[in-house]
Structure of Enoyl-CoA hydratase/isomerase family protein:
Amino acid sequence: MDYSHYQCLEIVVENKLATVTFNRPEQGNSINHQFHIELIQVWQDMMEDGEVNAILLAAKGKYFCVGGDVKGMAERPMGDVRGENDKILWPGLSRHMLNAMLECEKPIVCAIHGDCIGLGATVALFTDITVASETARIADPHVKIGLVAGDGGAVIWPLLVGPNRAKEYLMRGNRLNGREAERIGLVNHAVPADEVPKLAREIAQELADGPTWAIRGTKYSVNKWLKDQLNTILDASTAMEMVTFHTEDHREAVRAFAEKRKPKFVGY
Amino acid sequence: MDYSHYQCLEIVVENKLATVTFNRPEQGNSINHQFHIELIQVWQDMMEDGEVNAILLAAKGKYFCVGGDVKGMAERPMGDVRGENDKILWPGLSRHMLNAMLECEKPIVCAIHGDCIGLGATVALFTDITVASETARIADPHVKIGLVAGDGGAVIWPLLVGPNRAKEYLMRGNRLNGREAERIGLVNHAVPADEVPKLAREIAQELADGPTWAIRGTKYSVNKWLKDQLNTILDASTAMEMVTFHTEDHREAVRAFAEKRKPKFVGY
Amino acid sequence: MDYSHYQCLEIVVENKLATVTFNRPEQGNSINHQFHIELIQVWQDMMEDGEVNAILLAAKGKYFCVGGDVKGMAERPMGDVRGENDKILWPGLSRHMLNAMLECEKPIVCAIHGDCIGLGATVALFTDITVASETARIADPHVKIGLVAGDGGAVIWPLLVGPNRAKEYLMRGNRLNGREAERIGLVNHAVPADEVPKLAREIAQELADGPTWAIRGTKYSVNKWLKDQLNTILDASTAMEMVTFHTEDHREAVRAFAEKRKPKFVGY
Amino acid sequence: MDYSHYQCLEIVVENKLATVTFNRPEQGNSINHQFHIELIQVWQDMMEDGEVNAILLAAKGKYFCVGGDVKGMAERPMGDVRGENDKILWPGLSRHMLNAMLECEKPIVCAIHGDCIGLGATVALFTDITVASETARIADPHVKIGLVAGDGGAVIWPLLVGPNRAKEYLMRGNRLNGREAERIGLVNHAVPADEVPKLAREIAQELADGPTWAIRGTKYSVNKWLKDQLNTILDASTAMEMVTFHTEDHREAVRAFAEKRKPKFVGY
Amino acid sequence: MDYSHYQCLEIVVENKLATVTFNRPEQGNSINHQFHIELIQVWQDMMEDGEVNAILLAAKGKYFCVGGDVKGMAERPMGDVRGENDKILWPGLSRHMLNAMLECEKPIVCAIHGDCIGLGATVALFTDITVASETARIADPHVKIGLVAGDGGAVIWPLLVGPNRAKEYLMRGNRLNGREAERIGLVNHAVPADEVPKLAREIAQELADGPTWAIRGTKYSVNKWLKDQLNTILDASTAMEMVTFHTEDHREAVRAFAEKRKPKFVGY
Amino acid sequence: MDYSHYQCLEIVVENKLATVTFNRPEQGNSINHQFHIELIQVWQDMMEDGEVNAILLAAKGKYFCVGGDVKGMAERPMGDVRGENDKILWPGLSRHMLNAMLECEKPIVCAIHGDCIGLGATVALFTDITVASETARIADPHVKIGLVAGDGGAVIWPLLVGPNRAKEYLMRGNRLNGREAERIGLVNHAVPADEVPKLAREIAQELADGPTWAIRGTKYSVNKWLKDQLNTILDASTAMEMVTFHTEDHREAVRAFAEKRKPKFVGY
């Protein structure tokens, strides 16, 4: 299969293992519109590629992913969710991505070697097995820019760490490191940063070499819970996130971020 | 908004933060009928009060809450759930309270500075973020007085610590301290008793100062899971609790409690 | 009640406590067809026996249970799920067993004194309270013989340790010891191997002596979540497991197991 | 298989079709405790009998079933749900019966040749295909004797006729005939009374002769919806029914029934 | 209980029956903000009023209810959902109303004597038993003014007439009369217009005179399905409705309505 | 957008309306592997095509669709679900198609001008609004060839006609005509055959001209129920269908079909 048209992802297939790498290191692998679109397409391509039995998700550069492009939002309001020519904000992009991930029956291992923020964290946590650096910071800081944590965080965090811990991390938008993340069950493994790639690859290769349909059916069975939870929560949360895009508090947060000052919220 | 008619709760609003305090310290903040009624009303008032952006739930005296008034039950059988003039035991009170809590979109932080038992534990665990003293004891001991843990414990404990740990704590009615509670995910934070008020207030004030609708929508999204679970479990558990009010084992347990001896159960 | 017709289980009732013991120590308590049938019947008998108020599940010999009889599979393909005279593989056996366990309102405590594998692990984890040896190894290695972890593992592991940890253990089929199992919430208690019987019995006797209906109603309420999850996941996972019985990868895995070599999977 | 120990049911197996007949015609096939127990056991026996591929449920005498034995209730309060030696009313009997029906994968056709009331209606509507006499009257009149329609009516009526029509029939306890029942979807077929046995038997025999596992898997798939609904509703409704057994209104209704007068309800 | 402060509703309690009447006949009982607020409060008052055992919902004037005040929307954009001083559109009003209706355990009969549109239809269909005039027109025409049918229609119509018929009525916003509504199961009874009040009152009084808790528990049991459905659908649909308030198509539809011309939609 | 690569579908876009036509009239529009693949792809293309606001699904020739290619199955066992090079039967194809249909937010109207069988019926019933010829025959006859009705029938039939009517049509595989289908709610409209195209097109064009996002959000909201049902049922039913592909009864049914004789089933 030819993956050369991907711009934000680098995809290499070898020994039945596809390595999918975030490839915008200069931008901290921040997720812009093109990146988001590729994050929908890639899981469908993975399903269709007969050479692929398992997937390793990794990232280039210092960070795993710094999340959405907040600076860009100041110049292009709602630019992060609204495409170039879209004339209305409508929930859908995140749903398509998460649906594609959950429909992908092939196992996905994620190597979180560095900071993993926002939509980047959602993607990482929706993979099957996560290997994190002990010092990598993980967070879903939607509220910090005045938005509902609507694009998947409210679905997956509660399943991994329980509803109350999830509510704290999502309502405050604060960070935890990989070691703490492993302790409370947010990630599968926490190891020193330089051991992340090796451990993640070993697990992924083991799965690529394993009995194909036994592994797929097992993964798919567990994913039925995630689908149920997604149907209960995601549509409401993304639509409410759309509503917060129209608030003054969101605009103030984006301005404050650009001006490197604390925002002053007005409550609407 | 005027909160002066509250008898068991003290409510103070300042800087967009409402501090709601259990105010029956001499009775260990045990929850009688009036208290229960106020615990339904307060969350609706919180929602309507335009000055309130976040809520801090705390308690006066040595204990956070010792639960229902068991001693009173011996004199007034079923007195804890049945109002003065009620002629039938019917599930509803706890449902109204928990519904009101889950419908309250504003974030609630709970400062568990001392022992937190029974219905007190249910209320605390249904808030969003809990800060507990390392030595505070937490338990839902319905079974100790021969009753099904029907008023919410069977809903929230399993979500926080998994079904098997929940079944043990609820079927045995035994206690765990704040430190252990944090380790297994029952509470968000465990700190020395004297640091509880400060940390809880800091988090609550941070939320009160944050972007209103981003926080509310995020909280509300996660709560959809709790509502689903509540609809599956609560009505059955409260109705079964009603049934156990008619058992000899319940009456014996209440008598034994009053007489400070071990109960002898007969199995009906 | 007369339990003398049980061949694989030994059942003793005393002081309102039934002790149900896996009784095939020479075979590592591996679960053959007869054993499976008894594991359906026993929970119905437990419900009907008026002398029984609580159940202690334990096992004789070195292992708690080594799982299904893989060696037998090589000689008698699909022999583990297909009865002697069955002419079609059809999901049902595991469902009947798990339904019977979840319908049993009496509390069940499980003493995992040694290794606890596959279907043995599923049975153990579907009890209410588990006491494990710190060094006992727990695993659901269906994938190791090329099968979907379809007979309950995909239902209960995610509820106890979250979906991502569950996916790792089930997709890799690897083992964890009791100490680690307790840390992540898979079992309730981990103690030295020789303390397992005593602690498990103490808890079970405490429940046997407790208020009957309060305990049953409490257990039953929490189980409603498990039933919901079972209805969402189990039928799909067992039927997919049936499908994998028809794969070359399963046959190769069974051969390799018998020949004590690494399997070479072909992907169909 | 030997069915001679059944007292209230007559069971004949021929040509892969089991005909299960209500056999208390003098009592209008009213369901007493023994009858209820047999209505749990029979579905398990049907599953195990290798000679049976489909089931025809029918009844002797003028009525299909007049429901529970209300007259008996006046002499033996709560006698209808409480066994001879039970010392506590506890929900369970109806659940075990409905679970057994839903777990029975073999298709069940019901011949409703005459009036079909209360628990009789619940059993009939939980079969798969119903053939009713145009003039047979169908009702679930729990409320007429002051009880919640808790033993399955609140589960199955809404699925067949929508929640609002179901609420009217269940809250008023009024009757509809077979013709109207067919029009609104409560039964599959309405034909003249004397054609009921023939049509029902034809359909049942057709299913008995059909492809076994295709039919079972199809039935079982649809039943997953009923199981979901049952888990949501039944436990709450049966437990609330237990609570109404303790009301004065129930006792008054039973007395009024025995004295053939209109009851005067007091509201507790 | 004193109901004199209600402005849009007239409430009379007699013989345990509360008659709640829409009381803005000159405005076709169109639902403005004050009306909406009263439609939340009234169900809570009904629950608390010890004199009330059943509720009859009716309306004065020619129409049952013409829905929201579309003309007002042109002058006061989003005025129908946004209160006078609200600075942000946020879903919640409809949820609070529907929650209050579903939590009201007392039976509600609705007399739809004339046209019943939009939010008026939602309220009517969320009651328990509906009696409609054969010629009354029923519709949920949100889409006609460019809005998602988000305030409850997408929850209740599918349950009453199946998802496909519901999608047609809701996506086209077209009307059906009472006779057709009865045929497809949307309402319980269709009778000539002048018989509506009598039949509705008879049913309501019958329920008011019936066994209180038997009726409440029965209603409540069925409502658990509606709650489940509401949690799955409502939050998403109301939040998406909010998003459509920001569309040009909505503004155009409102203008066209005021100018009595066909709207020209642009697709954003 | 270029649709010229479609082989089994003809796609024309005009006035914001896409007309998608089954284009294998000589084969009765029977669905082979290529057709199935296109029925997955087309809904994704519909979503992405900015020129399309609504979709009309129709068919050329005498029949709407005669279902899968049973004759082909005799020559190429399992050929209908297994692709040319697939080496294992695995559920997925139907899921991908139904997911794509449910994710398509644009309204779909279906013109069932002639017989509509099996997978053809599933596709038709999963559209939003169906217009059927009064004499067209509709059926899902999986059981007639010894297979579980696993590819969606067990999901959608019960939602449209209730579980019991659905079980009869699916377990017997018998046909009903459009008039009867409308009466029981299976289709939205039944009209004479020659009026089907006009009415279907009128409705579809009306939706294409309507307010885009209001319609999409309304449709999507109702679809959340279908998704919930699909997650509960489909995976189990498709996997059980796979299992029945391995039965002798399936092979016999296919042979009997080719030989135009009645099958003789053996029960395995």
Summary: Chain F is about 45% helix and 15% strand. Chain F has one domain: 9-194+209-258.
